[in-house]
Amino acid sequence: MKLLNYIKGKFEEPESAEWMDNLSPSTGKVIGSVPLSGESDVKLAIAAAREALPEWSGMDPSGRAEWLDRIADCLEEKFEEIAYLESLDTGKPISLARSVDATRSVSNFRFFSKMIRDMEDEIYEMEDATNIVKLRAVGVGALITPWNLPLYLLSWKVAPAIGMGNTVVCKPSELTPLTADLLMRVIDEVGLPSGVVNLVHGNGNSGSMLTGSPDVDLVSFTGGTSTGAKVAQSASPQFKKLSLELGGKNASIVFSDCDLEETVKGVTRAAFLNQGQVCLCGSRILVEDSIYDRFMEMFVESVESMVIGDPMDDDTELGALISKQHLQKVQGYVSLALEEGGQIVTGGEPCLPKELEGGNWMSPTVITGLGTETRCSTEEVFGPFVTVHRFNSEHEAIEIANNTRYGLAGSIWTMDLEKGRRVAENIHSGMVWVNTWLHRDLRVPFGGVKDSGVGREGGKWSLGFFSEPLNVCVRHD
Length: 477
Ligand code: TXE
Hints:
This protein is of the alpha/beta class. The chain is built from 15 helices and 22 strands.
């Protein structure tokens, strides 16, 4: 599969004439090639977006909402293709690609279409004047996305961005370009006005050409924390609107009064969904001392029963890690855990069929016995790797949960809902679930504090981020 950029309504070879291999995470084999876009490709894409801006931003919001619906319908027709390509490109189980990635990509467009249709100007009456507050497009947006949830996150940005009247240039992760290409094919098929959505493939350099361009007005980035810092550095001097969704080291807090069976299921899912490669994953499990032994027995059994294997197999629960380099990083943390005094309770290389030997495979790993200050217990690993710790009081659980530079999410497991809410309100993060995890309502704010990012997206927060408010005050006395 040789992919092309999508600029001004046309699929184009990169002017840079440079290409990168796209590798399958599950076999290590080359599955296609991706443009490595250079300065002139990025400039052409930005120019196309700028040219399309006046007409698109001038359109009635309900007209733009209709376009979002057309895209959603066309994506829905390609539901199986999305799931297949996402599983092939990321190494995630096809069942997950169906239930999470394909499903959410369609619903992101439908959700924002409805929000934009329902949007009204705000009116504030004074005795002698009327204020009208109107949301207008910001301009040209750069949308940069990672490899863990490729189309899920790209559609989460494209839908509200163009719905609010912006035009955009997308830069998907070089590791997972396939569904971004599918979205461009959909946009082409429905006949969206050319230049409204453009896409350049490429690596971090291509991304930084976009974020640093004086012709880009807004940057929405999801990815690693250190990359986020670079993005902020290049975008801030030009006062661009900036949203950063970065990493996490989220705690799952298990109280002795939880429903243990449900909790073990929930905590296992939170730890290992998508091979632990979700920024919301509960990678630190804090367990109340009085049920620690019973919890561990059930948790390890649950982890060891997970089916690892060919991502395309319907029964597979755990697929491959995204790249060799990422696998090495995660395995590096296993060695570090031993150096830091931890014990591996379960984990190691799984037995895999011969045809998958070249892939990036790692069995789910559970580490105990580490101090809560250690690197393994505080740094984002972003793989099938969790540490488990004991606590004795509500206060201690909160203290451990807050003891990282991240502040994205968390989950609390208890039958005492009052306690659940009380503890949740003391967790320094953007989102906390009680007796559930990754239970998403698209109307609520999504994002984190501290090193987990800046700003929120979701519902009216997305509409706010992808627009500039204009206040018109008319005196009438
Ligand atoms: O992501 P990067 P990487 C975390 C996770 C992982 C680490 C690194 O811990 O191990 O990040 O992953 C583009 N200017 N998360 O290196 O580099 C890049 O091409 C502009 C958490 O794969 O953050 C890609 O499109 N863009 C995360 C996107 O940024 C740049 C999900 C993300 O890549 C750029 C993924 C630059 N200077 C990884 N450098 C989450 N929060 O969900 C790179 N890019």
